[in-house]
Amino acid sequence: MTAMGKYGLNLLSNIHDSIDDLKSAGFINIGGDILSASEVRQLRDLSGELLLQFEQETRTATAPTDFKRTGVGEGAWALTRLSQHHPAISQTIDKVVSDKNVKTILKSILGTNYKIWEISLRRSSPGDTGLYLHQDALGQINLVILLTDNLAGDGATSFLPKSHLVAKTAKSLRVEAPPVLLNFMRGLLKPFTGRAGDIGFFFNRTWHGRFSNQSTKSHDVILIAFFPSGATFGFGGSYLEPSQKYLSEIKGTELSRLLDPGYGTELVADKLYKVASDGGNTEAPFSLQIADPVGHNLKTAGWRAYVVILLLRIIMPLGRIARRGMASNRVDTK
Ligand SMILES: [Fe+2]
């Protein structure tokens, strides 16, 4: 049992309850029964070494690199295409995505032809100020592997429970709260907490950000981003396709089937892939249905989510007015 309360049930024994909880809350921690303690330790050590190595190499690099210092918030770093940088990491991640229960969960929310877009390591260091409240791409879900014990939620991805069932987006409502406000609202959001080795899932449609890291420790997580049957994903900018050399090295594995963008997809534009549909009379995958919860007769988000949204609708304009006031004062004193 993890520290996530009703959303942190270790339910590998009852996978269908886990799926129901995920569909209801928008995120879930299913516990740490998939990887052994030594596999988790190896994953953490190798990932940490790679992060440092890439950080040093990036200082003198002239070409695009998989090390990211920006775009993930202040005090946080990321290493993209993680699995292709070390065979042991690749093997362990293959074990996770080949797990029977993990596959059952993925199929139930993504359909049968789901693909992996990206695998990254994210480190939140002490003093990390966090990341603003946001949503990501249509249909996307993330599988999370915690690499450190994090029961307090420092530097953890944090969610507004059930907000994936809100028809409007945080962006359209202009309530993408900055990290400072997110941290002020800690009691209203739920961080992804747990022990090293815990595995979980969240819909990227669930309103989420990252709490600041007020601890003295770094917290590392692996994030595996999936797209469902019928969805579109692309590469470019700081997200590069897996190398052909790596794909040929892992040929025949479940991870290869999921990572190879040329398999089970249709190229619809330069570096833009559409995942094969499940076909027939099958309904759209749940991760796509939540973009239109009313049209698909899904449960409503519940009053708690709407109260938080109402609060943000009141507070956010006040912040904008205050910032404008401060800016005009600065002009006045020139
Ligand atoms: Fe996100």
CATH class wording: Mainly Beta
User: Can you say what the CATH homologous superfamily is?
Assistant: q2cbj1_9rhob like domain
Q: If helices are DSSP runs of H or I spanning 4 or more residues, what is the number of helices?
A: 9
Cα Rg: 20 Å
Q: What is the arithmetic mean of pLDDT?
A: 91
Bound molecules: fe (ii) ion
Major sheet: arrangement of strands: 1-9-6-11-4-3-2
- Return residue spans where pLDDT drops below 50 for at least 5 consecutive residues: 1-12
Percentage of residues assigned to helices: 25-40%
Number of domains: 1
What fraction of residues sit in β-strands? 15-25%
* Helix and strand sequence: HEHEEHHEEEEHEEEEEHHEEHH
- Major beta sheet summary: 7 strands, antiparallel
Structural class: alpha+beta
Whole-Å distance between the termini? 59 Å
According to CATH, what is the topology?
Jelly Rolls
**Which overall shape is indicated by the principal axes computed on the Cα atoms?**
globular
CATH architecture assignment name: Sandwich
